[in-house]
Design goal:
alpha+beta; six-stranded mixed beta sheet; two-stranded antiparallel ribbon; about 45% helix
């Protein structure tokens, strides 16, 4: 779950809905920026990279220490490795190469963790990656280029989801204080600097898309009072999902 806290409510965005924003942005890329190989598998990986969160985001957990719902940034490692592995398994059932990309994506999050669940997860995923690479005879240079693209669209979607619409540059989420690194095949050693021009429009400092991308952001605004009265899970399930249209160019 992606969480933004407001004075009297929490903005809650499902991880899989965030991934659909990543996919929509990827689909708007100029043709000359699209990879020549395995582009359909890359698109599938981008769209499904957070599918393991789907059942977990239906019943969000409460962080009693911080008095807020757990988000993807502070979710406990032990259940996080379970949902990561579950998601990669789901992707592998449909597309081996997409599963390889998702596996790389998740292992990089936990690669330096000393937590026993994390180290076990990384070990199992490295074995999976070797098996898939051998099976597909994967070209390492192409794979790393594709991984950079997956990582980029994950980050660009997170920029949209984690920031309050219309936020001033100096008040953006700390993840993006230095911008977003562009994939090497888009621009060597360049940084993308998104900027909220209004509460509906985001302007980029590089021409990436064939036309302005229309982004339907699905979210729930869950009242803190409802959480106090009913508990998080009931308050969340009883809150309607709203769709906010945003524009990226």
């Amino acid at each position: 779950m992606i969480i933004r806290e407001q004075n009297d409510a929490f903005i809650m965005i499902k991880q899989h809905d965030h991934a659909q924003i990543s996919k929509r942005l990827y689909q708007q890329l100029h043709n000359h920026l699209l990879p020549e190989e395995d582009s359909s598998s890359l698109e599938y990986a981008i769209a499904q990279h957070d599918c393991g969160w789907i059942p977990f985001d239906e019943a969000p957990f409460w962080n009693d220490q911080q008095q807020s719902p757990f988000s993807f940034t502070n979710y406990p490692t032990e259940p996080k490795t379970v949902l990561y592995e579950y998601g990669i398994n789901m992707v592998e059932e449909n597309d081996l190469y997409a599963a390889l990309l998702c596996s790389e994506h998740y292992t990089r999050f936990l690669n330096n963790s000393s937590n026993a669940s994390a180290t076990g997860f990384v070990e199992r995923e490295r074995a999976r990656q070797e098996r898939i690479k051998d099976q597909l005879n994967t070209k390492e240079d192409v794979f790393l280029k594709h991984y950079e693209i997956l990582q980029f669209f994950d980050n660009l979607s997170l920029y949209i989801c984690l920031n309050e619409p219309g936020v001033a540059k100096e008040d953006e989420h700390y993840f993006f204080k230095k911008g977003i690194k562009l994939p090497q095949i888009f621009a060597d050693n360049r940084i993308l600097t998104p900027n909220w021009k209004t509460d509906k429009t985001i302007e980029l400092n590089k021409d990436l898309f064939t036309s302005p991308a229309t982004i339907p952001l699905k979210q729930k605004i869950v009242s803190k009072q409802n959480i106090k009265d009913k508990g998080l899970q009931k308050a969340y399930s009883n809150t309607n999902t709203e769709v906010v249209l945003l524009y990226v160019s």
